[in-house]
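Example record

One chain of 155 residues, shown exactly as stored in the release files.
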Amino acid sequence: MKAVFAKAGRIAPVLLFVLSLGACTTSEQTAGTASSSAIASVQDSSRSASSQAGSGTVSEEKTFTVHVILPDGTERDYPYTSDAQMLVTPLRESGLISGDEGEFGLYVKTVDGVTADYDTDGSWWKLSVNGVESPVGVSDCPIEEGAVYTWEYVH
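Predicted structure tokens for this chain:
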């Protein structure tokens, strides 16, 4: 009987470690497998426990606007509500932006169906937050409640 408890004592920390790794995954990862579903379940439990503990680590939905300035000067506003941490997630999921993944995250080439090609004509998409050019790319840009994120075609 002592051997069973000793073995359980050695397995418990390993199991706890594996479950905590699951809680560290991001919402951007897909949950297409049974193990991903299990991880999602652990994340939900973790979020619920964190919320009840008042730790403030739970993501709350934020409302924000994406303003797009197209090459012809046309301007469009798109309202969003999301519980994502970074701007890239809801914009990519909705199809508003696309581009190439690189060392520093997503290099946005297309916004609202319009592609900028820096290599061909020097055009690119500039991201601003509340009227100030963003010092980080969309992959590292946190979502702020009530913020206006502007994509401006620059040529």
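Notes: The helical segments are 2-23, 34-53, 88-94, 118-121.
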